[in-house]
Design brief:
Strand order of the largest sheet: 1-2-3-4-5-6-7-8
Structural class: alpha/beta
Number of helices: 7
Order of helices and strands: EEHEHEHEHHEHEHE
Helix content: 25-40%
Radius of gyration: 17 Å
Largest sheet: 8 strands, mixed
Strand content: 15-25%
Number of strands: 8
Amino acid sequence: MTIHGFQKMTLLDYPGKVACTLFTAACNFRCPFCHNAGLVTCISAAERIDEEEIFAYLKKRQGILDGVCITGGEPTLQKDLPDFIRTVRDLGYAVKLDTNGSDPELLAALINEGLVDYVAMDIKNTKEKYAATIGLADYDLSPVEKSVKLLLEGRVEFEFRTTVVAEYHTPEDIAGIARWIKGAPRYFLQPFVDSGNLIGSSDGQLHAPDATTLNQMLSTARAIIPATVLRGA
């Protein structure tokens, strides 16, 4: 796999587990507020991390780490993702996958084979505003809709999450998202943080919603999905 980042231990990325996090390069979305532009539009071959280095580390940390988080970029763009996960699981680790839901067929295959233990899927906005929010004017939303439906079947532990940006989201939008994903066991709202390395905007053009608006978003979502949580505020 094309791995361009490696966090050797995290207590935050995998709920309830001590884990490490791998960052794959490349993404098929162009969200202007994405804070990982270096993994999307400025990929440097010199920063690639060899898989064997990852596996050697995982072998040494057996019994200390519980899981491996695979994020990006968009991990499902990696052709050898299933084989990579099989090796990780053979070493005794649980696997959490972060995805934008754009490849429901691969997601279904991973679930059917029991290769993922937890899936975190980003819901970028309401269906009506999705294309603009991901920076792709003519995007066909049907793959994302299929992934939402797949996860709602409940065959794997999962969460939905939305990064909320004042310039892209209103409390009404969050209510619309919640109605779309109604039945989810958990939904996280994550206020936007400007990393200084965004894809589409810089110099303070994007902002997190203010505290009042965040609370409105939280209450409107909770009316539909009671287990909605504000994460990272």
